[in-house]
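[step 3/7] fold_predict: job queued, chain A
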Amino acid sequence: MDNPQLLFTVADRSYFALLKKEIHALAVDIGFSAERAGKVDIVVAELVSNLVKHANGGQLLVKQIKDKHRGGGIELVSMDNGSGITDLKRMMQDGVSTKNTLGHGLGSIQRLSDQCEIYTLKDWGTVILSRVFKEPREGQAKTPGVAEISSVVIPKPGETICGDGVYYKLTKEKLKLFVGDGLGHGPDAAKAVNEAINVFKNSVEEGPVDIIRQLHQSVRKTRGLVASVAIFNFKEKKWSICGVGNIAVKVNSFANTKNYVSHNGIIGHNIPNTMKDQEVPYEPNQTLILCSDGIKTRWELFKYPGILKNDLSVLTAALYKDHTRNTDDASVVAVKINL
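[step 4/7] structure written:
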């Protein structure tokens, strides 16, 4: 919640001036030089142009990101429901176009980005991820950290404040993750989830159940929330998970997908007297995905062939694109542990 995410709907070229102004201001605010901010401007222009020309519009997700080696940066993710790119390798070459234009779009995005990935399926659409950092670097090789974490957190259409919240703490011993959804939406929902995050930040409890009980006592004066807490223990190589309310939790591996059921109740109002942490052993290439009820529950990763090979921001954007209800705040969080 300390890092709000922006969602822009792109219907035609008239939106470009507004997008450029807001995203350029974000780049300047976090310390981009004029040259680096100019690269962001061009990437935004190419993403918007692609959405308009090739997909009859789409959406653009924008947020600030942090990297201990390159300082701050901006992550841009475009999403569309177009026909997909049939020959992606060819379309990445400069001068290639299906619309009788110069064909600089995808090639420019890749060149100007510090990281760039494209996921596309026939008759499904395309997700393009671009990251530009304050500090330039050579090449686009990415060394994943011990924990990869990505989230999409967007308020209900028409709201400016989000009642969903995501926060994590990473140490050498554990990764502690909180995903919460304040009841309803708007400022009161945001107040409930932010109060819970403040408690979670400072909590010294070691298990999900104990943390949830602490949250329950601390947010009684708010309207309440539903939430899940997931903790990965690096020494024991396992997840411990507990949730109250309708935060969907799935653990995906190449072999199978398993759902984890939360307890009934509302944190801050009523939670079960008896709760138990659910333990999940670590497997290579395992991905933990959590969604608030602003995301439809009936989705399966097998419908996205090869997507787990991509950056997790591609995965969270794809799930948001296809399954957001647009009637509530919505959040999708994905986590991968690399041991």
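[step 5/7] annotate
Residues 34-55 form the longest helix (22 residues).
The first strand starts at residue 6 and ends at 10.
exit 0
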